[in-house]
Amino acid sequence: MTFKKLLFVCMGNSCGSPMAEVIMQNLMVKTSLYWEVDSAGLRTWNTGRRPNKRCLQILREHGLRSDHFCRQFTVNDFLYFDYIVAMDEAVYKELLLWAGENRADKHCQVLLLSSFGKNGLPTYIDSLSPTHKLKNFRSAYYRIKECCKQLILSQKVDIVKYELPSTEDDDLYYSGKEKAPPESAKANHVPDANQNSSIFLLPADIRSSGGLRSSSTDPSNSKTSMPSCSQGVQRKLCQKCGQKFLAAL
């Protein structure tokens, strides 16, 4: 998976966006992804201040902390970040209007966090403010975390298993071949690090691609059994690491 730069944006940058920033950073650590994550606000209300005390309390309940100081969103953020993620629809609409006039670099995408719900369906995230009760912050935490997970999976993480000379797993198949060779051939096979023939793909029900599936997961299609970069596969993990990755999310 390629390196990304992601910015969460809300109105004041004291409640929702710093919470989302810390949650996403924690997911980055758990899954060994290397994304740059930050947060900002559309207004200057809290510039230079620490996030709201209720936001910090909820993060502490989950063993997390924030070193963030609130800042205002600027036009330069359109040029620097790959994804600008709005915490609610009001912020999303304002960002779209602002982007239409100031987004010179077309690779920057404006996203709505609540659109990344389970099963690809939109969800609802409370628009937090300092006047809201602690239970609202607690509810928003879990919804934000789920949406952050789905946002990661939407980037397509495919899991592959690399062959060992002593493997006896008949459920795996050779890339670019219709069926595995006989046992005698397996015993004498030594994988070449410079060839793709030593890579196995897991069955489709074990692999995760953010809800998107391509013909590369079909073992009957030998020509497409090894996905190329153009098909969206950006990261390869061994089977054990892949299972840890999914479990961490």
UniProtKB/TrEMBL annotation:
One Pfam family from the record: LMWPc
Biased composition (Low complexity): 214-225
Gene3D superfamilies to which the protein is assigned, alphabetical: 3.40.50.2300
Keywords: Cytoplasm, Hydrolase, Protein phosphatase
One GO MF term: protein tyrosine phosphatase activity
Active site positions, chain numbering: C10
Domain Phosphotyrosine protein phosphatase I per the UniProt entry, residue ranges: 4-154
Principal subcellular localization: cytoplasm
CDD domains xref list: LMWPTP
Location in or out of the cell: Cytoplasm
Entry similarity comment: Belongs to the low molecular weight phosphotyrosine protein phosphatase family.
Protein name (record): Phosphotyrosine protein phosphatase I domain-containing protein
Organism in which the protein naturally occurs: Drosophila yakuba (Fruit fly)
Species lineage: Eukaryota, Metazoa, Ecdysozoa, Arthropoda, Hexapoda
Gene: Dyak\GE25562
